Amino acid sequence: MTTEEAKVVVPRNFRLLEELERGEKGIGDGTVSYGMDDADDIYMQSWTGTILGPHNTAYEGKIFQLKLFCGKEYPESPPTVRFQTRINMACVNPETGVVEPSLFPMLANWRREYTMEDILIKLKKEMMTSHNRKLAQPPEGTEEARVDPKGPAKCCVM
Question: What is the pTM of this model?
């Protein structure tokens, strides 16, 4: 039996249930979190994520809200990731808040093993890179959230 034959592919819903359980338990140092956006979403497509702005960066003291949408091809294909909170970051479209796959290698080179947790952690690390850490951020008071079909998301400033 080759290693290819021995590899078990976990079905989409089981994979998403694993991610939900992990997200509900809390992960890492608590600076990123995620969970279901709508508990009634039987397809488990709509997720919400949070990143606390890293210390010693222009993002420090802010809480960034994100929407992750896992289409029916997830985890074979990456989710769509969009910042609800306004942010100035090289890989994020300033008008829509969408994380551009062509500018964010993890999405461009997506692998089935990657998770939503991995995306949030990588985005936080991206905030700390030399080309992002000092970028001027939208002024406080202009933190209105992007409109979502389910209504506006709130942004908190610590």
Answer: 0.85
